[in-house]
Design goal:
Order of helices and strands: HHHH
Distance between the termini: 41 Å
Structural class: mainly alpha
Number of helices: 4
Number of strands: 0
Largest sheet: none
């Protein structure tokens, strides 16, 4: 699914932004295998945790990111 839409999206971005896009496109293409691997690991972990635990973990992560975002200006 990811690879099917990657190349058309990259073509549209290249058309829109021109030469600003070269290095970033190569980096994005190189990270595609990592994206697929992390997706597979995440799906397996989500299946093992179950729906309720996964929801609790997701909510805890969202609250944690929100609290860190609020505290960041105070820590500088």
């Amino acid at each position: 699914m990811y690879l099917a839409s990657l190349f058309p999206a990259m073509s549209l971005i290249q058309w829109r932004f021109g030469s600003q896009f070269g290095k970033e496109a190569v980096v994005a293409a190189l990270f595609s295998p990592a994206l697929l691997w992390v997706t597979a690991v995440g799906l397996r972990a989500g299946s093992r945790l179950g729906r309720q635990r996964l929801r609790r973990l997701t909510l805890a992560m969202i609250v944690g990111v929100g609290l860190l975002s609020l505290a960041a200006p105070l820590l500088d």
